[in-house]
Design brief:
The protein is mostly helical. It has helices at 2-23, 28-59, 66-87. The chain has a domain at 2-63. It contains three helices and no strands.
């Protein structure tokens, strides 16, 4: 299936280049500028996709569940109450 998609996108790219060459006063230099700039844009897109994929793999399992967040907040609240009661500030105000 990927091969069919690649062939269609390649064919449409060739049609765009062919249209551009037929509507402009095309020289070999302008064609190579168009080809080179297309390759740069395609390269940037591929690098962006690869970077996003790698970053997503690193961060996929790192997000805590809601239960873990609530449990951690409860632990911190209990710890804060112990610290405040040890200082003699039961309600947290001076």
């Amino acid at each position: 299936m990927t091969n069919v998609w690649f062939q269609r996108s390649l064919a449409s790219s060739f049609r765009i280049v062919g249209w551009w060459l037929s509507t402009h006063d095309a020289t070999a230099q302008s064609f190579f500028w168009l080809a080179a700039s297309s390759m740069v844009v395609l390269g940037l897109l591929v690098v962006g996709l690869l970077t996003g994929t790698v970053a997503e793999r690193f961060t996929r399992n790192k997000q805590p569940d809601d239960d873990d967040v609530v449990r951690r907040l409860d632990e911190l609240a209990a710890r804060l109450e112990r610290i405040e009661s040890g200082l003699g500030h039961g309600n947290g105000r001076n």
